[in-house]
């Protein structure tokens, strides 16, 4: 039955799209040496056949092995013919245009006629055949100094009837034949009417290089088709900022890299104001001005040169699509996609992460940057790719499909989207950035699935639900990073449930014990660490374990790498306890020799945040009585025992709440109303806050007589 369904879809595709609907079996593997993007390989194979296309690439495409040979050919013969990505920049000071060949790694002049013929060379570049020449061939005898071409041939050859003289000049691009197609977006949109919604989604996936039957055969396959489809969103709509984090080998960059020449991938490396925005020295525009999509792959390894300047420009651009550089202001419509790896346990992010943005570079863990992200694709739900996953049967030609997707950016859709928003209005309480995110992602989703404006209500509600989910996931992480600044609420559309990850992280095995059956000597505190460049704050729980050895020995304080202030909090806790042993009734229980203390968690600084938890842990070890289940203590103490309030109180409480602590000791006088409204029962379950003014109050609560 499934086979009949595919045959019907194939027949529809051929009837509606004609020659651009192609047999894709085998083409994903025929990558012509593996160094060309998929859309270009497919174009060449379709135009020349696999054999001739392979010969063309071998002879004319510059690689690390052939680049020097091709450059030498230009030097010796005066001309070279290459298959390359050609992009042209303008140098106003020198009043010249400069052609840049990416694979040949060579720049030179270009004939103005070519720019009149192919203006896209000035707005991002094109793939094609490029002929570079450093000679004029002139059938003239006006200059005796010129060298006849036939002088370089054998002395036995007859000279031509009219000698052709060669005059040398600076290398110049004199011919260009593009390998990209112009498309009629209207025909694509009209073609949608011939397909059912699921048939159309399968066609979109197959045209992207995926096997829709493989996707639908996976657990939760219907939802997966929508997740894969969302990777196309940045091509279809302007100025969308997305992030996708997940395990390796799920094809995070495969689609955009192989589908469209308008997408550019930065894998690790450095991001600078010059290469992203504008080079002030050359006045040349950066990638954001010349590409439609920029993918920051392996984002964890991305380095920001001139951190503050780069981040300031990035925040400005992500917010408004504009940026200022030097004395000028610029605008662009490039979408940004941040992709990286995330450790996964059981199709869920590892519980070791305090928040899901922890894998990003420290500079990007700034809530001012993160709030400008529109959506978060859950890469942990997407299975690892197998060869079968990338073997669709039929689909639209990649070069055609890639051009259509970018063409949909200009497709008039305001009336359709206004009708959708009227029928499914947004929820209340949302910020302007939430609304912008829903508007851009939702519009892109609907352009893909319902480009002609005729809706399938159940699928429309699914797409709106996923749109809300993607922004909801961003909001949840912001709440985890800066509670108080960001409070929990639901993002999305009214009457459409939002699939959310939840506000609590999964417990680690150690958390599980402390939340259910704690051992004597174990207490939970929290630490914080500031980033000097971005100003962002990282918080985490720290678990303190105090143990009294059976045989006497020296006191040992151990701290995991990255945790600072262990000695300082130990000195304060010891002084307080030693000064109050009699008042606490602990003279006979106190054992300083053989006391071992370990801090686990972080990174961060314990000082002013964990002294109270350390006092509780030591007394728990002396009394051999555990602290109450699922409890945490947040606050410093003075040598006299007064409890002090850390300035990062809300983020520290968030760290404890994320790990399942339900009873939290906090300094007396801290804003209880703010705590209770931030950590409301609807999102976090019931959390009880115990205010304590003095360390003795905390000990009395923990160990009642």
Describe this structure in words.
With 705 residues, the protein is an alpha/beta fold. The protein has three domains: 117 residues, no CATH class; 297 residues, P-loop containing nucleotide triphosphate hydrolases (Rossmann fold, 3-Layer(aba) Sandwich), CATH 3.40.50; 194 residues, 2-Layer Sandwich (Ribosomal Protein S5, domain 2), CATH 3.30.230. Helices cover 36% and strands 22% of the residues. The protein is built from 27 helices and 30 strands. Strands 2-3-4-7-5 form a five-stranded mixed β-barrel. A five-stranded parallel beta sheet has the order 9-13-17-8-18. A hairpin with a 2-residue loop joins strand 15 and strand 16. The longest helix is centred in the middle third of the chain and has 25 residues. The radius of gyration is 32 Å and the shape is elongated. The N terminus is likely disordered.
